Predict the structure.
Amino acid sequence: MRSDTIKVWDPFIRIFHWSLLGLFTLSYFTGETEGPVHAWSGYAILVLIALRVIWGFVGTRHARFSDFVRSPAEVFRYLKGELSGNAPRTLGHNPAGGWMVLLLLVSILATGASGVIVLGLEGGGPMAGRIAPDGWIVSVGNTFGEAENHADGTGHADDDDEHEGERKSEPTDAMAQANQPHEASEDAWEEIHEFLANLTVLLVVLHIAGVILSSFAHRENLVRAMFSGKKRAP
Ligand code: HEM
Ligand code: HEM
């Protein structure tokens, strides 16, 4: 058996995959916690995805996008073949799995990027001060750090009453308030971020189902192959 196996997944792909699983789980379950773990595991994921995209162009044979991104017609033919039990076995990702890989990469990237925006609107991370209060316009410089805040009725009225006379003599307090972007846009981006995180989870569930079905269909343990890097030679 050992002699007729062939190396399919290089060490980078295997380390990428299992660290992504760990970091994604960590990110997902720290989303509602205070503290730096959530953002830092998210950054690590973004770095992993960036490296994986580069590896998709310059990496080993089955890591390359050109090896596994097939036309929709081929995906359709493959799925029809799977249903009738005579789909050809592929060494790298099968045509349907290839598109799932792309969807997962895009969805994780969008989740991470939207997280950076949420943090930016909260005044932290690399996007702090670079997002307009409406939550859309993004600037390269710190253009929006001192953007004017329009009253949004979220308790600021009480403050105004209490500090009516002090306002002018305490410009730092007023500045701090002016630096707060609209809470509405922060809430909207939080919703978008949460939605994308859950969409990724849905894709992961489909991904794992695909792996299990494909393992049975071709009588081959694909999970073990993602650890060892090896598959049965054709
Ligand atoms: C228990 C959980 C998981 C198992 C058993 C699993 C298993 C696998 C297997 C066997 C492959 C290779 C598929 C093939 O042979 O074509 C694969 C690929 C992949 N999986 Fe998973 N996976 C899991 C969780 C995840 C999670 C949580 C993510 C993302 C958040 C993920 C993202 C990917 C990606 C992007 C690939 C493509 C690998 C590449 O070419 O770089 N997986 N997975
Ligand atoms: C790519 C992996 C990521 C996943 C799976 C993820 C997942 C989540 C989830 C599930 C929540 C909770 C949403 C809610 O219930 O309101 C959340 C919140 C949040 N995430 Fe992420 N996130 C990721 C990356 C990031 C990154 C890269 C950043 C910023 C650098 C970030 C910043 C935030 C912030 C600021 C919140 C709001 C916390 C709060 O104030 O309630 N996330 N994330």
Notes: The mean pLDDT is 85. The chain has nine helices and two strands. The two ends are 12 Å apart (CA to CA).
